[in-house]
Automatic annotation (TrEMBL):
It comes from Streptomyces graminofaciens. This is Phosphogluconate dehydrogenase. Keywords: Gluconate utilization, Oxidoreductase. SMART domains: 6PGD. Residues 160-287 form the 6-phosphogluconate dehydrogenase C-terminal domain. NCBIfam families: gnd_rel, PRK09599.1. Belongs to the HIBADH-related family. It comes from the Bacteria.
Length: 292
């Protein structure tokens, strides 16, 4: 299959490679000419055979809207656009309507896998009409992890990004729990080897997880996280999850508290946020701030 991919950053670049390894043709475009296959969006579209498929992997909001607007002028009826970034689900409905007026299909794909996706595959949560989703099945199969899991057609347009948003909200709460436990262990005099306590949890316990493995990786690199500043950004999905909970009258105390904890990290150098920052860097390559 042939596909255009816009946005070749930490995830997009690895996705291009994984799709190519599966035997598909990828034409990639990025504003950075050192990683781009073509010089413009127009050149990318011209290089694809119809009906064309273009996958967008750029930051949510204005950047995605700009690309969608340009693609709307370049593509033709029968083509399909996939937004695989972290767009808000309400934007998906708008983009589907805008492109649909020109006969262009739209699919939203929540993508999880971070910097490890090339090696392990990407979990995919997809929203859109059945005909558009089925057309993209070979690409989804190339990106997903091996085995029966890691992909779902979650529902209609917006369902993919809504599902990914909830996934990220849960991620916030899980990381917060590990961070709080780590700070408490570090605080008491009786526990002399906190890193190895975390390592002991990796087998045979109910809290073992990939996040726990990444926490151990981070502690192996910096045992007491002394090199990090206790500051952690929020990427937007945590806020959107809490807002959606309010709109739907669903109580989310753990996820809400974890979001507010990140806000608190911007006031003081928080020990818990050292662990949150370390975990975000481990799974997603997110930037960290060094301790002064």
């Amino acid at each position: 299959m042939q596909i255009g991919l816009i946005g070749l950053g930490k995830m997009g670049g690895n996705m291009r490679e994984r799709i190519r390894r599966a035997g598909h043709t990828v034409i990639g475009y990025d504003r950075n000419p050192e990683v781009s296959d073509v010089g413009s969006l127009a050149e990318l579209v011209q290089g694809l055979d119809g009906p064309r498929v273009v996958w967008v992997m750029v930051p949510a909001g204005a950047a995605t809207q700009s690309v969608i607007d340009e693609l709307g002028e370049l593509l033709a009826a029968g083509d399909t656009v996939v937004d695989g970034g972290n767009s808000r689900w309400t934007d998906d409905e708008k983009h589907a309507e805008e492109l649909g007026a020109k006969g262009v299909g739209f699919v939203d794909a929540g993508v999880s896998g971070g910097v490890w996706g090339l090696q392990n595959g990407y979990a995919l949560m997809v929203g859109g009409d059945k005909e558009h989703v089925e057309r993209l099945q070979p690409i989804f199969e190339a990106l997903k992890p091996e085995g029966p899991y890691g992909y779902v057609h979650a529902g209609k347009v917006g369902a993919g990004h809504f599902s990914k948003m909830v996934h990220n909200g849960i991620e916030y709460a899980m990381m917060q729990a590990y961070a709080e436990g780590w700070e408490l262990l570090e605080k008491v005099d009786s526990v002399e080897n906190v890193r190895e306590v975390f390592r002991s949890w990796q087998d045979g316990t109910v809290i073992r997880s990939w996040l726990l493995d990444l926490a151990v990786n981070a502690l192996d690199e910096d045992e007491h996280l002394q090199k990090l500043k206790g500051f952690a950004q929020d990427s937007g999905e945590g806020r959107w999850t809490v807002e959606a909970a309010v709109d739907n009258s669903v109580p989310l105390p753990a996820i809400t508290a974890s979001l507010f904890a990140r806000f608190a990290s911007r006031q003081d150098d928080s020990p818990q946020m050292k662990m949150i920052a370390a975990l975000r860097n481990q799974f997603g390559g997110h930037a960290v701030e060094s301790a002064k």
